[in-house]
TrEMBL record:
This is DUF3185 family protein. It comes from Mucilaginibacter psychrotolerans. The chain crosses the membrane at residues 7-25, 48-67. Keywords: Membrane, Transmembrane, Transmembrane helix. It comes from the Bacteria.
């Protein structure tokens, strides 16, 4: 069980080091006055610091190395 968690942490940490975030589009209402509605597409960014991926990667390695076989 611990070994599986460690491997998952290693994979997630490596992915977080390679991709430091992502962008998605959200439709937002600008005007909503009865039958008249105006909306616009807004791009939102989700970013995380690269050191977080490094911490997960190192933590995963430690868990895998110290896990009982």
């Amino acid at each position: 069980m611990n070994r599986t968690i460690g491997i998952v942490l290693i994979i997630v940490g490596a992915v977080m080091l390679i991709w430091t975030g992502f962008t998605y589009t959200k439709k937002e209402k600008i005007v909503d006055a009865g039958p008249i509605q105006i909306s616009a597409d807004r791009q939102k960014n989700v970013n995380w610091p690269p050191y977080l991926g490094g911490i997960l990667l190192v933590g995963g390695i430690v868990i895998v190395v110290t896990a009982k076989k």
